[in-house]
Each structure stands twice: as C-alpha cells, then as structure tokens.
Design a protein that fits this description.
Blueprint: E1 3-8, H1 13-24, E2 31-38, E3 41-48, H2 51-57, H3 63-66, E4 70-76, E5 91-92, E6 98-103, H4 109-118, H5 130-142, H6 148-156, E7 163-169, E8 172-181, E9 186-189, E10 194-197, E11 209-212, E12 217-222, E13 225-230, E14 241-242, H7 258-264, H8 266-274, E15 278-279, E16 284-285, H9 294-298, E17 302-307, H10 309-326, E18 329-334, H11 335-338, E19 350-355, H12 361-372, E20 376-381, H13 387-391, E21 394-397, H14 410-427, H15 434-445, H16 447-455, H17 458-468, E22 473-478, H18 483-497, E23 500-505, E24 522-526, H19 533-544, E25 549-555, H20 559-564, E26 567-571, H21 580-597
Parallel strand pairs: 17-18, 17-19, 19-20, 20-21, 22-23, 22-24, 24-25, 25-26
Antiparallel strand pairs: 1-4, 1-10, 2-3, 2-4, 5-6, 6-7, 7-8, 8-12, 9-10, 9-11, 11-14, 12-13, 15-16
Helix pairs in contact: 4-5, 5-6, 8-14, 8-16, 10-14, 10-18, 16-21, 17-21, 18-21
Bound molecules: 5-amino-5-deoxy-1-O-phosphono-D-mannitol.
Length: about 625
C-alpha cells in the first residue's frame, strides 16, 4: 500500500525514480509524485493519477533538476484525504527545504496537526502524512545542535501508527533519511549509489544486494554507504541479502496483463513449490524451513491459521487438509479479527500466518498477538525477506515468484500446494502410512500437467464470460474442499470486474440465497466428483427450476452435468483434496475475461492495492 522509491548516487535520479514508481504502481495508483534535490534546491512535482501522467508532467522540470542525483518518489493509495494533486506526496515544509514521503497511517495526526497549526504551521493537504514534515521542521528549528537525522528521529518519537518514510533536505543535501515502523523499506546496494524502495521490484534491475530495514529502525543513506540505527539511536548490524529474482519475473512477458501472466504461470509455480521438497517415487517430503520444529508441530493441541483475503481462502483449504490427513484440530481466523478478540491460544498451540506479501498489517499484528501468548508461530509467505517471514519462528516460502497483479492468483495455488505438503508432513508416522503419502505425492506431482490442460480452455472460458459480462450479480457454490474455492471465485470476480458476487457452501443456498435466483442470476457451480457430487446435481436442478443461469466446473466425461447446462468447463479429475488447485483456475480466467470485457483494468482494480500495510 503506497509505493516508495529513493535514489542517491551518480546517475540522474529522475528516470530511476520514474521507472521505480512504475514498478511499484501495483501498491497504489491514486496519485504519484517525486522530489529532486540539487544543491540548495528541492523541486517537487506531483499529481493525481498514474505514474505515466506524472512522467509526462516532468517535461516542465528545469535542466538542473533533471541532472539531480538525489530524489524520492511516491505512488499513493489514499487513506486520509481523497486522491488529488494536493494530497499527493511528497510534502514540503514552508521553507521548502525538507521533502518527505510516507507509507502508513499516523494515527495521532489530528492532535499533532492541531498543535502544529496553533504554532503557525499551514497545511496544504488533508493527509495525515503532512504532519510529519512539519513536525521534523519544528523540531529541527527548535535546536541548532540537531541535524536532519536527529530531528527525524525525535519527530518519530511523537508518532503513533505506522510509517515507512524517506526524507531529504537541501540543508544537508547529500543524504536520504529513511525509517520504518510497520511499513516495509529495502535499501539496494550499488557501487557509489543506493536505491530505496518499499519492496525489491524497483531495485532488481540495478542490484541484487539488499538490506531490509526492521521495524523501529532509521537509516542514513549517502553515496558512500548507509548506517542503520534503532529509533533509540543504537547502531544496528545488518545482513546483506542477495535477491534471487530477475527482471523478466516482474515484466509482463508478452501477456496483456500481469494477472493473466500469473494465471498462466501456475503449472510452473506448482513445480517450484514442490522442487527439492518432495520425492513422489520414494514418498518423501522434506520441508526444511520447519524440520527443526516438526515434532512440536505434530504435537500441537490446536492449530490456528490467520490470513486475509485470498490467503484466508487458502487457509480454509489448509484446515480441511490438516484435519483430514493429520487429524489435528484447526481453526481459521481472519487476522483482523484474531488480533482484537483475545483469542484462546497458548504455548501448546501453533499459529500459522499465511501471506503472499508477508507485509499485510493485520496478519503481522496477529503474529504479534500469537507470539505474546507463547504460541509457536509459523509463516507461509511468498516474498523472501518480508516482515512476517522474518518475525516467525519457522516457516516456508512458496516460491511463486513476484506477484504483481493486485488480484492474487498464483500465490493462492502456491499456498495450497504448500499446505498440502504441510498436512502430509504432519501426518507422517502418525495418521497416514508411508504408502498413502507416496500415493498423495504422486498425485500432487501430476497437478502441473493437469493445470496446463485447463489453461488451454482459455478461449472457451472467454466465450462464457462474453455471455455473462452484463450480469450485476453472481453466486458461486461449492462444497467441501471447493467451498473455499467458491469464495475465492467470487472474490476474484468482484474485485476486478465490480460485479457483485457471493460464495456459499452449496447446501446453504436453500437457507437464503435461493431467494436471489432468477433468469438474470448466473450461478457458478463447482461440480467435480467427490462425496457430495450427487447433492450438487440436485442444487443445480433447484437453480434451473428457478430459471437461474448455470455455469459448471465438472470433470471431463461428466454427461450428467452437461445434460443440465451447456456452459460446462470440463477439467481433469483429481482426488477431492487436490481439486481446489484445478477448479480455481477456470474461475480465475472467468473473472479475468469478465473484467476485461467490461473494460476494467484488471491489474489496477479501483480502490485496491497490493500489500495492505494499513489497518
Ligand atoms: O499479501 P497477503 O496474502 O497477506 O494479502 C492478503 C489480501 O490482501 C489479498 O489476498 C487480497 O485479498 C487480494 N486482493 C486478493 O486477490
């Protein structure tokens, strides 16, 4: 949520900042802006709308600012104050010698603002962020012994809430001050140049060496290096991490949208999640990131999985898998609820946090609650080095590669594969025989090829989307392992096409949603072969008899379902526990095509942003 970039070095900062902002635009696209520093001058250019709009506006910048070799940039996801030119970052102090960008929420901004106004400060925006620049200004001016670093540090001591900030000043023109609490920041290390960003995407084309800032840390970045200190001013030793992804992974690679590219990457992603972790022939699983804790995990009285959005849907499938295979009781909680409801969790319990980004504010807060209560905390994250990955005691990376599309697709399938392997690991030597595990792993290893076959149905799915593109509502129904998939299908449709959609366990339809069914209501059934198949057929009949328009996902060769509707997407069969990995793919494509046919920008759905780092 909100993207931050910064550059200090020997090259022109402007093109680096603009390119960086484009790479971060998935974090917010309400407005974009940048500040360039050259000697005693700071120039700010900012406006509502996209980075390409900002880029066009930079033609007005004078030559000396184009030559600037220090700058900071921001792409905004609005919290306080509507998307507008005034509310765009960076913010300047009145004497225009300090510029600041911010990601996060200053929760006590209102009282700070009143105090600053009473001291004569004038605010030009409605944002919470603007208080930070005036606060630094006031503190710096109040004591001539202070420098930009100490003024920023002192200012942050007054701030409640979350922040990732970059600050520059023409009074100390050869440095960028950065600080984080709750909102991620990464420093990319070049030769005589340094890059700052909210995540690695803008950095990867310049260097693969990065340092992740931790919460409560502040860094001074110059052309000669960086020093990281705690907010209490104690120097921190930092580890340089090598990024393991390349530029092609964050580009569209010939696809029209990142979302479509990521949907099509899923067969490869499934293989990557399994790589080096399973040996189907020998029936072996080795999950290195949790091996040290596996016995404790197996002895858990109770597992709680916390997540948000799509990751929460994967968590729900995880519950079904772990309970069925490992026979351990699993509860799934929205991270945002868990954190505030004084959950019953203790030292004998395990709390698993699932997050693609590893930065989601609610999931991170749930992690802190679980830690305080003494539970063993385990993470399943995609972004390497992310905060949740670093703060959990043990965990596993999903290795899905960077997910840029705001609508999560490949991260979901990677999470489900991971949970499948986890469930089998927890069962090993306890509830399932070695031969059964080998059988499950062999089936799992066939999934990528089956997923590829589903992707070949893209044209047919687009045809179905064409017939339903004008719908205002849709109902997604599934049972058992495919109930969470129904929720996920509905979420995908609503977030990118703005068609109102609901997911339900199919049997619940008769307890209410059936009242909605008429000739205009598409009802998407997941009707693959499992123990509830016959009941689903009855549900389809119930919808048909009320003139609802049925779309079904069924297994290849299913004559029963094709008798009930002509809109059937036939997918290869699998065991019920693995079926979500296949049934979700047509639903992702259905949402994608419905949205593009309605003219929606699927990579930038309105009001949304990737990585929700605010509450
Ligand atoms: O990065 P996370 O997995 O923690 O993100 C959780 C949700 O914000 C995310 O899944 C969101 O719901 C997506 N827009 C779904 O497509």
């Amino acid at each position: 949520m909100c993207g931050i970039v910064g550059y200090i070095g020997w090259r022109e900062a402007l093109p680096i900042l603009l390119q960086g902002l484009k790479r971060l635009e998935y974090r917010g696209y309400d407005s974009a802006g940048l500040a360039l520093l050259n000697g005693s001058i700071i120039s700010v250019i900012k406006q509502k709308g996209s980075v390409s709009g900002l880029e066009a506006a930079t033609v007005t910048l004078p030559e000396e600012m184009r030559n600037a070799t220090i700058g900071i940039g921001h792409t905004r996801w609005a919290t306080h104050g509507e998307p507008s030119d005034q509310n765009a970052h960076p913010f300047l102090n009145a004497s225009r010698d300090i510029a600041l960008i911010h990601n996060g929420i200053v929760e006590n901004f209102s009282s700070l603002k009143q105090e600053l106004i009473s001291q004569g400060y004038i605010f030009l925006s409605e944002t919470d962020s603007e208080v930070l620049v005036h606060l630094i200004d006031r503190i710096w001016k109040s004591d001539s012994r202070l420098d930009l670093e100490s003024a920023t540090r002192n200012a942050l001591r007054h701030v409640d809430g979350a922040y990732g900030i970059c600050v520059i000043s023409s009074r100390e023109p050869d440095k960028i001050i950065i600080a984080r609490k709750g909102s991620p920041l990464v420093i990319g290390i070049g030769t005589g140049e340094y890059f700052i960003a909210s995540d690695a995407a803008p950095i990867v084309e310049h260097t693969n060496k990065v340092v992740y800032l931790s919460d409560g840390e502040l860094a001074v970045v110059t052309r000669d290096g960086y020093t990281v200190k705690s907010i209490e001013n104690i120097e921190q030793a930092k580890i340089v991490t090598e990024l393991d992804y390349s530029l092609d992974k964050i580009e569209k690679g010939g696809f029209e949208h990142f979302m479509l590219k990521e949907i099509f990457e899923q067969p490869e992603v499934m293989k990557n999640v399994m790589r080096g972790r399973v040996n189907p022939e020998k029936g072996l699983i080795h999950l290195g990131g949790i091996s040290e804790y596996l016995d404790r995990l197996k002895q858990a009285k109770h597992i709680v999985i916390c997540a948000c959005g799509t990751s929460w849907h994967a968590a729900l499938i995880g519950k079904y898998l772990i309970e069925e295979f490992a026979r351990i009781k699993v509860e799934v909680d929205y991270a945002s609820e868990f954190r505030y409801r004084n959950p019953i969790v203790g030292v004998d319990d395990v709390v698993i946090l699932i997050s693609q980004s590893g930065e989601t504010a609610d999931t991170l807060a749930a992690l802190h609650v679980a830690k305080e209560k003494g539970a063993l905390v385990m993470g399943i994250c995609n972004v390497v080095g992310s905060t949740i990955a670093r703060e959990t005691l043990c965990g596993m990376y999903t290795h899905a590669g960077p997910e840029i599309g705001v609508a999560s697709t490949k991260a979901f399938t990677a999470q489900v594969v991971m949970l499948y392997m986890l469930a089998l690991s927890l069962s090993k030597g306890r509830t399932i025989s070695h031969d059964e595990i080998a059988l499950h792993l062999r089936e799992l290893s066939c999934l990528p090829e089956k997923a590829s076959r589903i992707l070949e149905l893209d044209g047919q799915i687009k045809g179905i989307a064409e017939r339903f593109r004008d719908a205002n509502n849709a109902l997604y129904l599934g049972r058992g392992y495919n109930f969470p998939v129904a929720l996920e299908g509905a979420l995908k449709l609503k977030e990118i096409s703005y068609i109102h959609a609901e997911g339900y366990p199919a049997a619940e339809m008769k307890h209410g949603p059936i009242a909605l069914i008429d000739k205009d209501m598409p009802v998407i059934f997941i009707a693959t072969h499992d123990s509830t198949y016959a009941k689903i057929l009855s549900n389809i009949e119930e919808v048909r008899s009320r003139k609802g328009r049925v779309i079904a996902i069924a297994n290849v060769g299913d004559g029963e379902v094709s008798r009930l509707t002509e809109d059937v997407i036939f997918i290869p069969s699998s065991s019920a526990p693995l079926s979500p990995l296949l049934t979700v793919i047509p639903l992702q494509l259905l949402a994608y095509h419905s949205a593009t046919l309605r003219g929606c920008n699927v990579d930038r759905p309105r009001n949304l942003a990737k990585s929700v780092t605010v509450e």
